[in-house]
User: Which sequence fits this backbone?
């Protein structure tokens, strides 16, 4: 066998090994997700069986049917939770992105007194674990009488997301060359027009990714929401999971079914935005 | 019609003054080049004219109108950036038409003017492409097209060729010159490359450390540099400059060597004056290989050892040691020479320059 043939063989062996490795890694990452989907489809006996039953024996959609069939028939107010989640997540994301754009742009483009201190301050807020704030937040909210309201939770999530969106969007605006906005101003734009016509479209993919991040943070957040919500007025889906725990039992199947319901919109959103994200990034990746 | 006039134009960042009250008048349709080493304030000056940089003092007039505090869009200028600054998310057509779109021009007019500019610059085949799909030279042309479409009073160029390779630079230089002949607008062109400035400009403004050193036609700044700095900056290879002391009809160099004091400086200097002696490589040559036949009385011959030669085909740069320093000379119709050879060098003193060592100013009046 000549050297070329053996090199070719080695290369294809490496490719196969590479793929097997990737498959194993993906399997490991996806396993919890798959397990949740599987568990939502089978009876508790099978879920709790030891050793685990890998291939489901009895598959049914009972948990989903029960979930939507209303209180008293094993259901929970899932549509209310869903609505609350949607309102709170979308509103807080929109606000966090608006503030993040203004702040990120200011940090990227302007020089002002105390800029680095402010930036550092924003970053430091990220080092405080949210759960540590939940008790003080609870007291303050109780005094303000905004516990169990959309407003209260939106406020908390905006505060949680803003430092991160500012930081992320700042980075994307920095990548847009300053010359472009200047060229636009010479071409007849006001500062404001230059921003919307040139800088915003170019930073768009970055802003979208900050948006996904903020949305998912709000959508999945549990610790604060469990403290600050009470009823179907404002309970979100993650808090709704607790409805499946009773004093002595936990309905694992129902909980998993609700988890699947929770994951699907987030997955869909990520897929939709990701397509734009990739398209945007390649067309934006031009040396000014 | 656009005369650009700067009066006592000053730029300060905090307590740091970058541009020190410069005065400059640019005639209508004139091509003027601002040239100088980096950090000399030439780009800052251009940006102040464009309105991208606030001015700290003085006035800027464009077409008889003081524009000190007007935003860039109200100055009727266009600018070509060093980075081209094409909008990456727009096609070439959209890039060219952007200013018209912002101004709310009707579609037909927009199409017509984009077509005109694209015809002038040969962009017709590229109109639907994006900047990322263009080569450096094509991007450069689009950037110029975007400037033309606006039909401005003044074109501002900020080192437009410095991102191109040497061959393309020469080519684009010619195109810019042709373009100026066609559009007949006032042009202010910033560059650090003196060759660009010499070849393109009607007049050159040489700046250093925020001051204007000299304003003049390419010929003037080359033949009659006003300061030692200009003498060293303009011309390639640069002028030979050596500090010396005037003594009894001679200039005596630090190393002890001397040359006769050129006749026309005799009345300008006294014995003991510290001066800087300057001689262009064109005026220093191996005997028989010079540019000028020279007035015999003013040509001074010294035999010098060659240290390095740089053959360029039609000519050879010969470095020869004189007064413990390499002097560069230009040998036309070159003959083979090698390091260590001793050659008779002709110093054409009728072309020599003298500058005051103290002020750097030329001693020729």
Assistant:
């Amino acid at each position: 066998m000549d050297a070329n043939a053996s090199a070719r063989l080695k290369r294809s062996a490496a490719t196969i090994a590479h793929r097997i490795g990737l498959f194993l890694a993906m399997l490991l990452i996806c396993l919890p997700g798959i397990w949740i989907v599987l568990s939502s489809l089978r009876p508790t006996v099978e879920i709790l069986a030891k050793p685990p039953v890998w291939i489901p024996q009895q598959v049914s959609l009972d948990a989903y049917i029960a979930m939507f069939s209303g209180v008293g028939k094993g259901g929970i107010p899932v549509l209310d939770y869903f609505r609350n989640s949607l309102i709170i997540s979308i509103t807080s994301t929109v606000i966090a992105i608006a503030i993040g754009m203004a702040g990120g742009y200011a940090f990227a483009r302007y020089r002002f007194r105390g800029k680095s201190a402010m930036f550092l301050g924003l970053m430091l807020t990220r080092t405080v674990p949210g759960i540590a704030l939940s008790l003080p937040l609870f007291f303050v909210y109780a005094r303000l009488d905004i516990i169990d309201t959309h407003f209260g939770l939106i406020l908390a999530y905006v505060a949680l997301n803003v430092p991160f969106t500012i930081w992320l969007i700042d980075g994307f605006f920095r990548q847009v060359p300053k010359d472009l906005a200047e060229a636009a101003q010479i071409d007849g734009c006001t500062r404001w027009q230059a921003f919307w016509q040139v800088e915003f479209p170019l930073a768009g993919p970055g802003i979208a990714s900050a948006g996904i991040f903020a949305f998912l943070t709000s959508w999945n957040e549990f610790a604060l929401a469990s403290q600050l919500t009470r009823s179907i007025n404002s309970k979100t889906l993650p808090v709704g999971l607790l409805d499946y725990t009773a004093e002595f039992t936990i309905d694992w199947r129902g909980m998993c079914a609700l988890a699947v319901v929770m994951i699907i919109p987030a997955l869909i959103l990520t897929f939709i935005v990701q397509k734009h994200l990739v398209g945007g990034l390649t067309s934006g990746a031009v040396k000014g | 019609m656009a005369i650009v006039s700067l009066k006592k134009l000053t730029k300060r960042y905090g307590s740091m003054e970058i541009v020190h009250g410069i005065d400059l008048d640019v005639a209508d349709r004139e091509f003027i080049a601002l040239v100088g080493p980096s950090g000399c304030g030439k780009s800052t000056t251009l940006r102040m004219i464009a309105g991208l940089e606030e001015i700290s003092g003085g006035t800027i007039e464009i077409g008889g109108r003081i524009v000190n505090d007007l935003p860039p869009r109200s100055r009727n200028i266009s600018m070509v950036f060093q980075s081209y600054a094409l909008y990456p998310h727009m096609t070439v057509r959209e890039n060219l038409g952007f200013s018209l779109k912002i101004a709310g021009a009707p579609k037909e007019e927009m199409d017509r003017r984009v077509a005109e500019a694209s015809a002038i610059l040969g962009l017709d085949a590229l109109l639907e492409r994006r900047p990322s799909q263009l080569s450096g030279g094509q991007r450069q042309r689009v950037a110029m097209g975007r400037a033309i479409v606006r039909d401005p009073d003044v074109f501002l160029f900020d080192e437009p060729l410095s991102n191109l390779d040497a061959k393309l630079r020469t080519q684009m230089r010619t195109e810019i010159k042709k373009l100026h002949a066609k559009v007949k607008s006032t042009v202010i062109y910033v560059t650090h490359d003196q060759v660009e400035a010499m070849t393109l400009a009607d007049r050159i403004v040489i700046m250093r450390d925020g001051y204007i050193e000299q304003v003049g036609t390419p010929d003037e700044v080359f033949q009659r540099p006003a300061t030692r700095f200009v003498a060293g900056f303009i011309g390639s290879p640069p002028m030979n400059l050596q500090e010396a002391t005037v003594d009894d009809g001679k200039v005596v160099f630090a190393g002890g060597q001397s040359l006769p004091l050129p006749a026309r400086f005799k009345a300008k200097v006294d014995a003991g004056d510290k001066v800087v002696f300057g001689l262009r490589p064109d005026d220093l040559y191996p005997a028989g290989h010079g540019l000028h036949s020279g007035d015999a009385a003013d040509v001074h011959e010294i035999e010098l050892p060659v240290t390095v030669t740089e053959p360029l085909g039609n000519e050879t740069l010969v470095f020869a040691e004189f007064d413990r320093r390499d002097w560069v000379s230009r040998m036309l119709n070159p003959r083979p020479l090698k390091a260590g050879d001793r050659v008779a060098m002709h110093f054409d003193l009728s072309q020599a320059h003298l500058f005051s060592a103290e002020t750097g100013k030329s001693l020729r009046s």
Remarks:
- Chain A has two domains: 3-63, 68-284.
- Chain A is about 75% helix and 0% strand.
- Confidence is low (pLDDT under 50) at residues 280-288 of chain A.
